[in-house]
UniProtKB/TrEMBL annotation:
Keywords: Isomerase. GO terms for molecular function: pseudouridine synthase activity; RNA binding. The keyword Cell membrane does not apply. InterPro entries: PsdUridine_s_RsuA/RluB/E/F_cat, PsdUridine_synth_cat_dom_sf, PsdUridine_synth_RsuA/RluA, RsuA_PseudoU_synthase, TruA/RsuA/RluB/E/F_N. This is Pseudouridine synthase RsuA/RluA-like domain-containing protein. GO terms for biological process: pseudouridine synthesis. Residues 28-166 form the Pseudouridine synthase RsuA/RluA-like domain. The keyword DNA-binding does not apply. SUPFAM superfamilies: Pseudouridine synthase.
Amino acid sequence: MPSLGARQRLSTDGAGTEQEAPRLFAFFKPRGMETTCSAGSDLRKFLKRGQLHPVGRLDRDTTGLLLLSGDGDCTNRMLHAGIPKTYAALVRGVLGDNLIQKVLSEGVELADGHVDVARLEVIDGDDVPFGIVAYPLSSIPTNGCSMIRITTTCGRNRVVRRTLAATGHPVLLLHREGIGSITLPPGARPGDPPVSISVECIP
């Protein structure tokens, strides 16, 4: 991975003014974007000519917070630290209290292993994030559906979609709201340029 060390500096203007290179950037991934660095990926134009790379991935149809890093060691630590990730989702069916308590207390068994869920709750319309309402909801049947928030430290491929499907409530829309304490900047919109964040690396 390309790496910007903590002491490396980037030129920021034509006059040659320099500042220490930020290690992490928050990016609002839009729907339909592949989060790879391969040729032809829409994400490449946000990677500062290869100086940044995504910290993990979001699948093509998931919106929300994607961290971009300029430091390979920082990325590796973050990917293996068990950091909680929080998502909002529109799912089929109505989640009952008994199911929610069962998932929170017992977790969910998938074909590739157990998934612990730290948070699972139904949220109301006033709490729905922009990443969800930005979808053309008119094209999605929402009758008999629930808007939920879920947090897990598991980072396996499509784990939130698979976990909710295993409970009998497949995902229609999925939006990542936060990674640990990091959230998208207020007013951010899908596809906005990445914003540097003050935290250098977690943990």
